[in-house]
Write a structure and sequence with these properties.
With about 200 residues, the protein is of the alpha+beta class. It is built from 4 helices and 8 strands; from the N terminus they run αββαβααβββββ. The chain has a 6-stranded antiparallel beta sheet with strand order 3-4-5-6-7-8. It has a two-stranded antiparallel ribbon with strand order 1-2. Strand 4 and strand 5 form a beta hairpin. Helix 3 runs antiparallel to helix 4. It is globular, with a radius of gyration of 30 Å.
């Protein structure tokens, strides 16, 4: 084999080597991009629920590790509002116990103390409350629900208060579980204001 042929063969081998290097580099780059995509991709499992209640069955909702649909926050807000705002001294302990299961641990102690104080006041004054929600609003890009409704208060058998009320409920999602972070009576002029208005215990005043 003469030198010219050797050079030619070496050139072919080197060309093939470069070609395979380009292919290998492309495959490596594709693999790296795939790893980045997979690492950045959420592994949340979105679960869709259809409520068994016929009235709510037309509003299925979904829950994932890092968030939930607006319908889920609305239903939770309604659940919390009824526990906190509807009842009397006899049902207060049960309602508070159920409510604490939704409240975030960071505010559980403070809120329970407020609700316990409100329950004692209800017992001392023979107060009964009922909240009738009529409208729900969701915050923009935040798990915040504002509930508009009518709050009625009785002392004994006498209706002593019948007023429109507006409450803001702020939630957080942690590992697919919803927590109540804030529950305050708010102003109709700026219901989503971050500054709290009257505390929930002021509802019976």
């Amino acid at each position: 084999m003469n030198r010219q042929q050797q050079i030619k063969d070496i050139g072919v081998v080197m060309a093939e080597k470069r070609q395979w290097q380009y292919i290998a580099s492309g495959l490596l780059l594709a693999l790296l991009l795939l790893m980045v995509v997979l690492m950045g991709k959420s592994h949340d499992t979105k679960t869709i629920f259809v409520p068994p209640n016929a009235e709510l069955a037309q509003k299925p909702f979904w829950v994932a590790d890092s968030g939930a649909s607006p319908e889920y926050f609305q239903m939770t807000a309604d659940y919390v509002a009824q526990l906190a705002l509807t009842g009397d001294a006899k049902s207060a302990a049960y309602s508070i116990d159920r409510l604490m299961g939704v409240v975030h641990p960071s505010i559980r102690g403070v809120l329970k103390a407020e609700l316990d104080a409100a329950a004692l006041k209800m017992k001392a004054e023979n107060v009964t409350q009922a909240f009738y929600p009529v409208e729900y609003s969701m915050g923009d890009n935040r798990p915040v629900v504002v509930i508009k409704g009518t709050l009625k208060t009785w002392v004994g058998d006498k209706l002593t208060s019948n007023r429109d009320a507006l409450y803001r409920l702020t939630f957080s999602m942690e590992a697919g579980r919803i927590y109540l972070m804030e529950f305050v009576e708010t102003s109709p002029h700026d219901p989503f204001n971050t500054a709290p208005a009257n505390p929930i215990t002021g509802a019976t005043s």
